[in-house]
From TrEMBL:
Keywords: Membrane, Transmembrane, Transmembrane helix. It comes from the Bacteria. Residues 44-137, 218-314 form the Nucleoside transporter/FeoB GTPase Gate domain. This is Sporulation integral membrane protein YlbJ. The keyword Transmembrane helix applies. The chain crosses the membrane at residues 47-71, 83-101, 121-143, 149-170, 206-228, 259-279, 324-342, 376-397. InterPro entries: Gate_dom, Spore_IM_YlbJ.
Length: 403
């Protein structure tokens, strides 16, 4: 049996097993689906949609190229990517997964970056946004806003180190002329103007394209969130998670991590929210050990996010393998940074090493705006989602009638 037939057999068995599992555990599958839908409905869609639409508009107006010219002297020596990578990096950190992949794919489709540059760029521009790290994980799961500072520090420093490491990936023999350009606002503005002139779409058409493209991407993201939420739940009930956890235990012992964290770790490899939540609920382990596991989970980003990125990159010639390798690298970097900085930073500045199980009164104000943002999204998010979907349907229907 050749490799192609073997792949067909494996995929068929997996799909059949998944269908049988859905029938065998209908209630658990429904609960997992609702959980994934609520996450997309309340948080993911309303928080990502504005960033996606604004990004599309900025690309169309030439602002991204303007930023790219200005950041070229910084991004090219550090990461071997064009200056426009700085915009993708910033938007990726601000909006979270998978904004970096979407913007990278968009730039590749417009041939503003090469294939190798795209593979380097996507490897370090996908990260968790601060709202999720501080609001959901540190405050929502651990009730400890100070932990969010450590998680964010480990996460973003790890991403920076991934970018420095991945600069050695690929071999670009053709160097663009922009690499020799110096910082010049005049030249950057000229590039911005030329880019806007070349895009002949009126503002209304540009805005409509941005809305349609953004919502289509978010619908795909929602499907993956629901799918992997169900898969994660089924794996647990089929005892596959516990089986994999036994194998992980041997790896954990090498690093002095307790076996109690193995099941949350496996769950986090599939879906970061559930993995982080389960890790925070484990009793009898130190906060440092929990923080190391959560740092790895956030950096690895879960197969759910990776599937979203793979789907986005499939629209281009950018390969997924470098991104997957970068996620493993990011996981180890973040976990190591957390372990190294824990004593000199967290134990020195926060509570002298005492584990915080509740939010003290004198630091509640620091976390207040994170809590407000989360509650606002949960209350207003569904309304924004419905409104955006109605607008999408109207624009889509109008264009079909015109055609």
């Amino acid at each position: 049996m050749n490799a192609s037939k073997l792949k067909t057999l494996i995929l068929s068995i997996c799909a059949t097993s998944f269908a049988i599992s859905l029938i065998s555990f209908p209630k658990e599958s429904m609960d997992a689906s609702i959980r994934g839908l609520n996450m997309w409905w309340e948080i993911v869609f309303p928080s990502l949609l504005p960033f996606f639409i604004i990004s599309e508009m900025l690309i169309g107006f030439g602002v991204v190229k303007f930023i790219g010219v200005l950041l070229e002297p910084l991004m090219r020596p550090l990461f071997r990517v064009p200056g426009i990578g700085g915009f993708v990096w910033a938007m990726g950190m601000a909006s979270g997964f998978p904004a970096g992949a979407k913007l990278t794919a968009r730039l590749r489709q417009e041939r503003q970056i090469t294939r190798a540059e795209g593979e380097r760029l996507v490897s370090f521009t996908n990260s968790s946004n601060p709202l999720f790290i501080f609001g959901a994980v540190s405050v929502g799961f651990f009730y400890n806003p100070n932990l969010g500072i450590m998680l964010a520090l480990a996460h973003y420093l790890g991403n920076f180190m991934v970018g420095l490491t991945m600069r050695f990936y690929g071999n670009d023999r053709k160097q663009k002329k922009e690499t020799k350009n110096h910082f010049s606002i005049k030249h950057a503005f000229s590039v911005l103007h030329q880019t806007r002139i070349k895009d002949e779409r009126p503002i209304g058409k540009l805005l409509g394209d941005a809305v349609i493209s953004s919502i289509q991407t978010l619908l795909m993201i929602g499907g993956f969130i629901i799918l992997f939420s169900v898969i994660n739940k089924l794996l647990f009930h089929l005892h596959i998670t516990s089986f994999l956890a036994k194998a992980i235990n041997y790896f954990f012992h090498l690093f002095g991590l307790p076996s109690l964290l193995s099941i949350p770790f496996i769950s986090g490899l599939f879906e970061i929210t559930l993995g982080s939540q389960l890790t925070s609920q484990v009793q009898g382990v130190s906060l440092l050990q929990q923080a190391v596991i959560v740092s790895f989970i956030l950096a690895f980003s879960g197969f759910s996010v990776q599937a979203q990125v793979a789907s986005i990159l499939a629209q281009t010639d950018i390969q997924f393998k470098p991104f997957f390798f970068a996620r493993i690298l990011h996981g180890f970097y973040s976990a190591i940074i957390m372990a190294v900085l824990w004593k000199p930073v967290y134990e020195h500045f926060y509570e002298n090493g005492e584990t915080i199980h509740s939010i003290p009164v004198f630091i509640q104000g620091n976390a207040k705006w994170w809590e407000v943002a989360i509650h606002w999204l949960q209350n207003i998010g569904p309304l924004l989602t419905i409104s955006a979907l109605i607008i999408y349907i109207l624009i889509y229907a109008r264009r079909n009638l015109q055609n």
